[in-house]
Specification:
Elements lengths: L13 H18 L11 E5 L3 H12 L25 E8 L10 H21 L3 E8 L7 H9 L10 E11 L7 H10 L14 H8 L11 E6 L2 H14 L2 H4 L1 H8 L2 E2 L2 H7 L3 E2 H5 L4 H11 L1 H7 L4 H13 L4 E7 L6 H20 L3 E4 L7 H11 L4 E9 L17 E3 L1
Parallel strand pairs: 1-11, 6-7
Antiparallel strand pairs: 1-2, 2-4, 3-4, 5-8, 8-10, 9-10
Helix pairs in contact: 1-3, 3-15, 7-14, 7-16
This protein binds flavin mononucleotide (FMN).
Length: about 425
């Protein structure tokens, strides 16, 4: 864990909180395995341990969030008072130094990624006897987003990382009987991964799909997410057609492609050393060294700037569509509001994590195809063609994998955690 737990003034009950520090470390290790757009891992978690920081976090949880209306309490019926010194707090943040920014739609992807992380973090804590008692979301105003969000954490002192925008504060309480085991969750989180290879032809059993859509727990409980499975031939064909037509959009968007390419690592070794992004083999499967070099060169932003005039982006779109077309199911997740706020989007990400873990347990794999959501005109066409209401925030191939897929790199879990 970064920061210096020993340098901060300790409240009298510090000794009793040591188990929480341990639990948080374990939880951060597991939550680090969460999926994120481009594997950018844009999350941060602050753990207030000093007296002043704890009081400030308490106020953040109790009071209406800065810049927004009173957020609904998510106590699941539990008491919100009386924990005193035995309560613990964590504050989830978006790390602005790690976020993707080249497209407006990335703002949604970042919150979704942080929400997925939060769901796994809080589930891991619950399995160690620390259950969520209350969550308050920081809902910044549209004008002055960063400033407002930062203001909410000003009372937390100088230890608050400057590049972090708080998303929500969580109060946790000791509970005695966790349901399930941490080892099980760790196993599933390790097994979950994005699998971009072809899937087994043939339908996914309807009962399995129903299980994936069933109501969720934790932060995802009140997420208000609509889960639609596109399984009819006509729906899947319409989706594949859209990918074939628009799937090359990113390659022609200079800024977006430059940003995406900055996450492409030369090889496994570089990916492991950096702890984020993806080696080319993650995107294109196992590659010989000459082919890897050739692809890297072809995909480099300067080359792409030239090759797109020859229609190379259309070739890449058709390649993606060829993988999408025979996929037995496409899952689309949507939020009711066309312009969802922080809370709705973070909860949406939590729902996605829950869905992906369940799919993993059912032996299924996912491969998101976000390019059709990243440009408003394409997203609207998708939603209109397939009758998807509100704001579709996630769309992915879903099926039984035919081959395994390598695990992508991660930063060490504790690097996302700061003691404040
Ligand atoms: C919101 C979101 C959008 C994503 N979009 C894509 C995508 O368009 N294409 C893709 O191949 N992977 C996509 N991914 C998967 C990430 O690239 C993947 O989670 C990350 O590289 C880590 O790999 P892992 O899922 O195997 O752990 C997305 C993930 C998230 C959370």
């Amino acid at each position: 864990m970064t920061g210096s737990p020993t340098s901060a003034p300790r409240p009298p009950s510090a000794a009793r909180r040591v188990p929480f520090e341990h639990a948080l470390r374990e939880a951060a290790d597991i939550a680090a395995l969460s999926p994120s757009s481009h594997n950018c891992q844009p999350w941060g978690v602050a753990w207030p341990s000093g007296r002043g920081a704890r009081r400030a976090a308490e106020r953040l949880v109790e009071e209406a969030p800065a810049g927004g209306p009173e957020a609904p309490d998510s106590t699941s019926g539990e008491s919100s008072t009386g924990g005193g010194d035995t309560d613990e707090y964590v504050i989830l943040a978006l790390d602005r130094e790690r976020e993707l920014t080249s497209l407006p739609a990335h703002a949604v992807e970042m919150l979704v990624s942080c929400g997925a992380y939060l769901q796994i973090l809080l589930r891991s804590l619950a399995l160690q006897g620390w259950s969520t008692d209350r969550i308050r979301f920081v809902e910044p105003l549209a004008d002055g987003r960063t400033q407002k969000a930062y203001d909410a954490c000003r009372p937390l002192g100088d230890t608050w990382p400057k590049s972090w925008s708080p998303l929500c504060a969580v109060r946790l309480r000791r509970t005695d009987e966790p349901v399930g085991t941490l080892a099980e969750l760790r196993r599933t989180a390790l097994a979950r991964r994005t699998n971009r290879a072809p899937y087994r032809p043939g339908a996914v059993e309807p009962a399995v799909l129903d299980g994936l859509s069933a109501p969720s727990t934790g932060v995802a409980e009140d997420a208000g997410v609509t889960v639609r499975h596109l399984v009819a031939d006509s729906e899947r064909a319409a989706f594949a057609g859209l990918v074939a037509r628009h799937g090359g959009r990113d390659f022609t968007h200079r800024q977006a492609w430059r940003e995406t390419y900055s996450f492409v690592r030369r090889d496994e070794a570089e990916a492991q050393a950096r702890g984020d992004g993806f080696p080319l083999s993650q995107l294109f499967g196992p590659l010989s060294t000459p082919r890897r070099h050739a692809l890297r060169l072809a995909l480099a932003p300067t080359t792409m700037g030239v090759l797109r005039h020859a229609g190379y982006h259309r070739v890449l779109a058709r390649q993606l569509a060829r993988v999408v077309r025979p996929t037995p199911a496409i899952v689309a997740m949507g939020l009711a509001d066309a312009l969802p706020g922080v809370e709705a989007t973070v909860r949406g990400g939590a729902r996605l994590a829950e869905y992906w873990l369940r799919a993993t347990e059912a032996g299924l794999a996912l491969h998101p195809v976000s390019v059709v959501l990243q440009h408003d005109d394409v997203r609207k066409e998708l939603q209109d063609r397939l009758g998807l209401p509100g704001r579709t925030f996630f769309v992915s191939r879903l099926g039984h994998p035919l081959t395994g897929f390598p695990r992508s790199p991660r930063r060490i879990g504790a690097r996302a955690v700061r003691t404040i």
